[in-house]
Design a protein that fits this description.
Blueprint (H helix, E strand, L loop, with lengths): L2 E4 L2 E7 L4 E4 L1 H4 L4 E4 L5 H16 L3 H5 L7 H18 L7
Parallel strand pairs: 2-4
Antiparallel strand pairs: 1-2, 3-4
Length: 97
């Protein structure tokens, strides 16, 4: 897959040597993109894909959700991604190689 359309726009998908990263115009002016390590496998890969997808999906919403002092977006995304990944894994999701 080379791109994916999220509610916040189209993101390019890259596979590079880093765990995962979501870049959007608000962060540093770069293109909208998600980078996932090609070395990740199984449940960990699913967790990172969901984690970065949540960042992409909530680009505009995050400003409202986490504008209060003390709110931590990264912690929320970590928890949500892990919970969704675990649920999908238990439901039988597996990546076809």
């Amino acid at each position: 897959m080379r791109t994916h359309e999220f509610s916040s726009g189209e993101f390019k998908i890259h596979h590079e040597e880093m765990l995962g990263l979501c870049c959007h115009p608000d962060s540093d002016g770069t293109e909208k993109s998600i980078t996932i390590s090609p070395k990740l496998k199984g449940l960990k890969r699913l967790d990172v894909v969901i984690h970065e997808s949540l960042h992409a999906e909530f680009v505009t919403l995050r400003k409202r959700l986490f504008s209060k002092k003390g709110a931590d977006e990264e912690e929320w995304v970590d928890d949500a991604a892990s919970n969704i990944a675990s649920f999908l894994w238990r439901m039988g999701y597996r990546r076809k190689e």
